[in-house]
Amino acid sequence: MNRIKKAFQNGKAFIAFITCGDPDLQTTEASVLAAVQNGADLIELGIPFSDPTAEGPVIQAANLRALTGGVTTDRVFDLVRRLRTQTDTPMVFMTYANVVFSYGAERFISTCAEIGIDGLILPDLPFEEKGEFGPICRKYGIALVSLVAPTSEGRISRIAAEAEGFLYIVSSLGVTGTRSEIKTDLASIVAAVRKATDIPCAIGFGISTPEQARKMADIADGTIVGSAIVKIIEKYGKDAPTHVGEYVKSMKDALR
Amino acid sequence: MSNAKGRFGIHGGQYIPETLMNAVIELEEAYNKYKVDKGFTAELDRLLCDYAGRPSRLYFAEKMTKDLGGAKIYLKREDLNHTGSHKINNVLGQALLAKKMGKTRLIAETGAGQHGVATATAAALMDMECVVFMGEEDTKRQALNVYRMRLLGAEVRAVKSGTATLKDAVSEALREWTSRIADTHYCLGSVMGPHPFPTIVRDFQSVISREIRAQLSEKEGRLPSAVVACVGGGSNAMGSFYGFIDDPGVRLIGCEAAGRGIDTGDTAATIAVGRLGIFHGMKSYFCQDGYGQIAPVYSISAGLDYPGIGPEHAFLNDTGRAEYVPITDEEAVRAFEYLSVTEGIIPAIESAHAVAYSMRLAPQMAKDDIIVVTLSGRGDKDCAAIARYRGEDISE
Asked: Does the interface ipTM go beyond 0.90?
C-alpha cells in the first residue's frame, strides 16, 4: 500500500512543509522528526529551486538560504535516506519541474522510489503537462500529486479523475504565504472533487492558525501548512526543531 | 510524450501553476477569435500606422557597406517606432486584445525598460491601469526609463528577489498574475513563457519580416541573403525571421549576449552555454547548473540579460534553420560606437549585438549579397552606461 493512504487514516491529516537545507540539512532532519513525533501525518519536503515562481517571499527566502548553504538534490536524497531509517511517515517532494527534468526524470523518480519517497508535487506542472513525468512516476509507484485552484472552473473533474495520492486544493489566488482570511468557496470545489474521485483532498496555501486548520478540516480531509512553519525555522534557525514540534502539535490538536 | 499545445518541436508547452491555466486558455481562445476579426485587425493596423509610425523604414547603410567592403547592409529601423523600439508592435496588439477581453489592467516585466515603456504607453492610450515589474538592478541601470514609465502613469515595482534582473521581473509578474487574474492581462514582452504567448508575440512582431520582404523587394527586387537580429527572449529576432522561415536561401542569424565571453561565466548566451530545461512556463534552453538551478547571467545589455530563449528559437536552432552566435560586451560597444559615427544612428546596446555580427559577416560575403540588420531600438537610453563602460564619469 502506498504510504500516502496512511496519512489520512488518523483523523484529519496535518501535512507539514519544510524547505530542505534551511538553514542546514541537520536542522531539516531534526525538524521533520519533531513534526512527525508531534502528529504530522505527511511531510512535504521542499527541494529548493533558484526561482520558485509559485512561492511568496517567505518560502522564496528559505529556498535562497538553503541554496546559499550548498544544498543539492543529491544531498536532499541523502537526507531522506537518513530520515527513512527513523520514520515511516509518508513523505513527498515539493519542487519545480526543472529540478526533476535536469536531474533526468527517470533517474530522479527511480531514486525517489528507492529511498522511500511516496509522491511528487510540482506546482509548475499542470494537468496538460502531466505527460512529462506521469508515466515514469507510475512506473516507479510515485504519486504525482495534482493541484486544483480557485480558478479551476470546468477543469476539476478532469483533474480529480486522474489524481493520485491526494489532491492538493489551493485555497486562494496568488502564491504561498500566510493569509488572515480565506474567502474562496472551498466547499463547492471539494464537492466537485468528491464527485470525480475517492482520493483524499487536502487544502493548502495561506493556512497558519489552528482555527483556520479546523475550518479547512471541516471541508476537506487534511490541511497543508508551509510558510507558517518556514517562518518558525527562519526565526529560530538551528533551534527551530522544538518550536516546529510545538507548532505542529497545536495544529494537529486542532484537527483531532 | 506531451499532449499540450504550443509546441515547437520538443520546446514550448504550458508549465505554469494550475491557478493560471484557465487564464491562458481564455487568452488563446480570445486570440484565435480576434486575430481573424476584421474589426480587430483594422483597428490594430490603424494604431500601428498612425500611432506607432509603421511601416518602419528599411534604410540602406551605404557608408557602412562601403567601409566594410562586402555585402550590402540594410537597417530595419524599429528604433524609429513610437517609444523607440520594436516592443510597441506586440504591446499594441496585446493591449487591444486585453481590452476586447474586458481586462482593465496590464502588468508587464521589463529588462532594459523598453517593453515597460511600451506597455505603459499603450495603457495610457487605452485607459488601462499598468504595473511594470523591473529588477532593482535594472531600475538603476535604466533610471531614465523608470521615469518615463511613471510619467506615463504606470506603477514601477522594483524586484529585489533573486538576481534582481529580467528573469526575476518575469517571475514576479507571473506571481502577480496568479494573485489577480479577473481584471488583469499579463502583457508578456517576448516570444517566451507559456503557450500561447510565444505564438501571439511572434505573430504581432512578424510585421517586421513582412515589411522587410516588401521593402527589399521594392528596392532590390529580391530576398535578403541574411537577416541578423539580437536575441534575449527573442521577440525582435522572431519577428524578423518569421516571414523568411520558408525561404531556405535566407540565412537567419540571432545574436546572443556573450557578456564578458562564453567561457567566463559572465554571459547570457543561452544557446552557447545553456541546456534543455523547463522554466517560466516553457521547455527550452536555459543557463543553469548541473542540478537545474537557473544560473545568474550577465550582459552589459539589460534587455538581453535573460537566462533562457524563446521556444521557437530553440526549435530553429535544433533544426539548423537559424544560427545563433555569441557577441561580447566589447564587440557590442564597438558596434554601438561604429554605427553612431558611421551612419549617425545610435542603436540600442541590444541591437548593437546584431550590428556587431553584421560587421563581422559583411566582409566575408559577396558585394551582391544583402544583409538586413534589425535595429530593434534606439540607443539614447544606453549613452550613460556606455560612457561609464568607457570610463567616462557621467550621470544622466
From this structure: yes
